Task: structure prediction
Amino acid sequence: MSSFEGQMAEYPTISIDRFDRENLKARAYFLSHCHKDHMKGLRAPTLKRRLECSLKVCLYCSPVTKELLLTSPKYKFWEKRIVLECVLSRRALFKIVVTLLPAGHCPGSVMFLFQGNNGTVLYTGDFRLAKGEAARMELLHSGGRVKDIQSVYLDTTFCDPRFYQIPSRGECLSGILELVRGWITRSPCHVVWLNCKAAYGYEYLFTNLSEEFGIQVHVDKLDMFRNMPDILQHLTTDRSTQIHACRHPKAEEYFQWNRLPCGITSKNRIPLRTISIKPSTMWFGERTRKTDVIVRTGESTYRACFSFHSSYSEIKDFLSYICPVNAYPNVIPVGMTVDKVIEILKPLCRSSQSTEPKYKPLGKLKKARTLDRDSEEEDDDLFDDPLPVPLRHKAPNQQTVHPEVFSTTAVSENEPGKLRQSTGCHKAESMQSSLVANFVDCEESNSESEEELEIPASRQEDLSPVTPSQQKADREVPQWEVFFKRTDEVTDESLENCPSSTEAGGSLSPKLFSDSDGDSTHISSQNSSQSTHITEQGSQGWDSQSDTVLLSPQEKNGGDVTSLNKTGCRPRIKETVPASHLEQNVLCPKDTHSDLKSRDQDITVVPTVGEPTTLTGREHIPEEKSLLNLGTNADSQSSSDFEIPATPEAELPKQEHLQYLYEKLATGESIVVEKRKCSLLDT
DNA sequence: GCGATCAGTT
DNA sequence: CACAACTGATCGC
Result:
């Protein structure tokens, strides 16, 4: 469970995944994915009120997250305040470019990469990325190497040697596919119940099962996927299917009596034969034994390995590749302490590999790192990698994008795009489709607050200069294809770059024998293709099957990859994403905010109008150009210069005063802050 | 009555 | 195991 408080030391005026307490003062909000524990305070009356008073405050998230969030009436009030791409900026001098990177955690999940005056910072949200995947993310690179990242706020859920390895998604998926295949092919009355928690994240499992067997999965609700056809087509509310993922408070009890959560017990008057599969995280310690990806836990109950989070070794691979100066854990695993986690992370950070003593323990993330402002005043410098980062080149195959291309936004792999991808299949993950946005510089803001007041609500739909189709896409069906371009086939090279796949059969891979719990049974299969199959008889007979169903992670993954590819989902993408696939989304800020106070931390959020889809054509825009490529959306994006203070005593700055402030800002001069006027903005 | 918190359950 | 959610009890506004 994330214990991240919502703010990052470098950019304290924005809040991520937390919307209560101190975060109520944030200038901009970010939501990495739609799990409740990352939405604390998001629907609280206090925040709602703040939103009503501060028209510039917006929420930034991926298109899928927006879609999922707005499905609930409780969050409808956010509708007009959600921005899908972004550049937070405060005029040309202070801007924060935010890049969304696929997180592989659940549909719509993303990591946020902030690049601005206080350094480049990565907030991972919850993530699951296989080894080598960071190296394949174009947007994490610049000039052929990984960006110089100051700090990483990391999902350390399994950052404990105890969770050394967790079978890959592909391994887990193929284990489940075989288990299901062995059951449902027996007769139309043999059904499986996927005992999933009511969270987003299992979609890729559903879509793959549906794809593989041509059977839709029964779920209680599918309204949230109404605009995600690639997921929707694999789900149904018709109970007469052999694969169920429906739920009920007394589901387990029902199951005991051969009754599914949705209530059905028979088909054509023939009693159903059911087995339950409970996705659970199973891991392999560094030197301990492994378990199988499928473990039988009872007569007709199984546990299947499934993890939304990276394992210890995946976290280490990711962090060591990024090699930030600082790494802060977002989660303290049970039984661990902050210090212990930091001890693990520290050696993977730059400070331990260079002489720069930059590591800061987790704690008050108060001080922004000091920057040499002069060096960052130039826009051009802002996005460069001024500090030589250990030369770690990204995986060769990925080089599709020109280094100079400035892409800002990528979509998460999970974004339901094409079915499989959307669900978080590997494919999508590894690939990166990125959105290249145009960078609009925020020159002057229009200071007409009246006018601006209307912007938040109408901006995206009415004022946007975006093409109609774009707007339409935005409002209606997300154009997932745009976000997910799949890469091509897996290549040998890619394998090289993909330790995880190659190592699957190596030392890290679990042994196939199962020594798991005494009563559990497992079938070890050498490769997915032949893996297990369930014995014919005893469907209900626990004994009869006990020696049949063990699926273990495949040592060889040839089969694994193959089967996944077949379903369209999980190929390792080694490949690169053609530059053409990058989209740029940038936003343009037209507005300026007047936070006079701490300029380093001041941030103005400017929502962008542009629809990602429209931007696809501009793939190779050099950064420089993209920065200048403003005009188009500027008008529609203008936002107010001020927010309406939430605090009663706050007053609106006068026009003349603003003018003065703008001039100061433009020249980089320091400004004497009059706190009274920006109390809300102070941090 | 609603929301936040916490303990317990799955 | 841990996750993400849900339920119920309690407390406060």
In short: Residues 20, 44-45, 195, 197, 249, 251-252, 278 of chain A lie near DNA strand B (CB under 10 Å from a C1'). Chain A is about 25% helix and 15% strand. The longest strand of chain A covers residues 94-102.
